[in-house]
Amino acid sequence: MRIDFVSDVSCPWCAIGLSSLEAAIGRLKGEVDVDMHFQPFELNPQMGKGGQEIVEHLSMKYGTTPQQIAQSQEMIRARGAEVGFKFDLATRTHIYNTFDAHRLLHWADGEGRQRELKHALFAAYFTEGRDPSSHEVLVDVATKVGLDPERVRSILASDEFAQDVRERERFYQQHGIHAVPAVIINERHLIQGGQPVEVFEQALRQLAADKSGG
User: Fold this and answer.
1) Which of 60, 66, 148, 186 holds its CA 20 to 30 A away from the CA of 175?
2) pLDDT, tens digit (0-9, with 9 covering 90-100), for 101-158
């Protein structure tokens, strides 16, 4: 079963959705063989260097008040805790550009370390409050999951994989993906949003049953 997980490393519901999806896959251990790939999506492709303060950004983008943002952040923290993901609301203060992180994730797929890097980037941003647009941060995070730091620096110092990432982004946008996370199973079936574990489990079981029955 192929799963394409379309997401951004600065999307909290993507972190929640991935934890839920992996928990669901764990419940089906031995029943399905999953081949997962992480696909790029940028929530803020025009975000400049240094990023933007979160409350300011969300207020400008969605017209929400600081109180509404605080309530939403607390709901996200609680949902994350339910699936074992830690959001530290105190450390995460800004929204950043994530394009370079997506370039590394694209490369890491071929290195067999994409899933580990995805998890590490989520933790670096949401739990540790680090800047995923910082090349120093990206080198450190990638190195910790077993990737070659010199190769990482070489990629970041160039435009390598930029065209590949933009092509993948356009592909999913042209196929109707305008919000994330988007979970695409066997390149046909779409599950949208950071769903509970039970929703993913039911969908995976149904698709596995349909395939075996067909």
Assistant:
1) 60
2) 999 999 999 999 999 999 999 999 999 999 999 999 999 999 999 999 999 999 999 9
Q: Which domain holds residue 194?
A: 2-46+97-213
Domain assignment present for residue 28? The answer is yes
For the domain that residue 200 is a member of, what is the CATH number? 3.40.30.10
Whole-number mean pLDDT of the chain?
A: 95
Beta-strand relationship, 189-192 and 182-185: antiparallel
Q: Is the Cβ–Cβ distance between 45 and 170 less than 8 Å?
A: no
Helices (H), the chain: 12-27, 54-62, 66-82, 99-111, 114-122, 135-144, 149-156, 162-174, 197-213
Q: Give yes or no for residue 213 having a pLDDT over 90.
A: no
CA–CA distance, 76 with 68 (Å, rounded to integer): 12
Bond preceding residue 132 cis, omega within 30 of 0 = no
Beta bridge partners of 36: 3
Whole-structure pTM value: 0.95
